[in-house]
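Hello again,

I reread your note about wanting to compare the complex against the isolated chains. To keep things tidy I'm splitting this into two emails, and this first one only covers the full assembly. Below are the input lines as submitted, including protein chains and any nucleic acid or small-molecule components. They are followed by the predicted structure of everything together. The single-chain runs will come separately.
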Amino acid sequence: MVPAPATDTPDGAAIRWIDVHKAFGEKKVLAGVDLEVARGDSMVIIGGSGTGKSVLLKHVIGLLRPDRGRVEVDGVDVASLGSTELTGFRRRFGMAFQEGALFDSMTVAENIAFPLRRSGRLTQAETHARVEECLEMVHLEGAGSKRPGELSGGMRRRVGFARAVALEPAILLFDEPTSGLDPVMTGTIDELIIELREKLGSTTLTITHDMASAFRIADQIAMLCDGRILVTAPPDEFRNLQDPRVQQFLRGEARGPLTDDTESAPHETGESP
Amino acid sequence: MIESFFQETGRFFVLLWRVVAWTPRRPWDLRQLLVQMVRVGVASSPVVLLIAMFTGMVMALQIFTVMARFGAERYVGSIVGLAMVRELSCVLGGLAMAGRCGSAMGAEIGSMRVSEQIDALEVMATDPVHYLMVPRVWATVLMMPALVLMGDAIGIFGGYLVAVELLGANPVTYVETTFQYMEMNDLVSGLIKAAFFGLLIAVIGCQQGFFTTGGAEGVGRATTRAVVVASIAILISDFFLTKVLF
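Full-complex prediction:
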């Protein structure tokens, strides 16, 4: 694909991967990813464990840089930003990590207040009010004084969400928000993602391998396979795709085209260097 | 082996440079600096002072016994004093601090790395070197000389106790000879070394934490390496610093 010129039109793509390649040593993880997320859309990227979903996500916020190709956010080539520009650039994102990644030296309230304090935009009282508001959004009123160690897995993730939305980001990123949770908690987290998105009007990018969850929260589902985007489709259309790899993933079968071709496919690769 | 030596050294200087470059930049987190100063300085003082005290005591005991063989007991005070101030207080204090604070920094930052907390910092527009390393490095650089200065005093006092109270040396002569041959340069160079060792301990401790990979086992490795590498760096740099400073 020909790299598109940098545009910053309000109705353009919020996030765009253009022929992105990434390898860690010998392991080729991304091999030419092309994908677009429209502004305000909820995109869910699915794929097996170790297919490079997290790697794809980390390129968006500049935690990783592509070996080839480019990643654009609001028309800006992320890899072209220097460290100071990157710091400012990241203020438009809120990211919720897999296990929450809460700072365990702080209370829940201090965790949520962290991005607010660092931005230096709010007074003490405003910060406090915003923390309460964020806790309310994730239905954890009154948990502010708890330590992350005292929380269950589901609660930790909700606090992670609250921290991610504290600065009302334009783009929300969710890294495996439901992995390792029971079905009821998964449902709750999904609802919360939909709720937060409606409230903030943010563009949402979620990576997961939980199909039930993907169908609930997605406007568009993209499947990552062999380092490339295999297909992108709205949930209803995605369900009916005849591609045998998609069908194997949807049915969760151990045997099929996804697992047969282990030699050429970049499976079993770690998602960090 | 050689490759990893150069890699580690390269990382050390890159991180050191980033600490220097980030230091004047806002937001200044004075609270974090104070927290770290308490953790590094106040909390470590019992260990460092205990080491200094007993080092001063054993030095007096050893040197008194040897010097008595040729009737030079009156110089025990100056030898103990000079040894503490120029060398022992800062090196032994540095080694103790590497074990206590360097390891803690390696473990804390290492577990933050493996639980994605450092990624979270970056995503929240916060440079981890700015937020985590700057206060730790400055706290250690500032507190090490303070600890060593107290160590000097208590080491000399320990020597006095043993020589005068246990071995029957003349208290007036002991105090007199302790300070008779001591110059300001002896004291200051010891404190400069202490600050330098503080820098090594903090940067190496944080460095090991930052580059931790591989879960809980990796954190354990980072902690051990923080102590071992810092201790070796202290002993080697001590020789060269002494050569330059005295």
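For quick reference: Chain A touches chain B through 24 residues (CB under 8 Å).

B.
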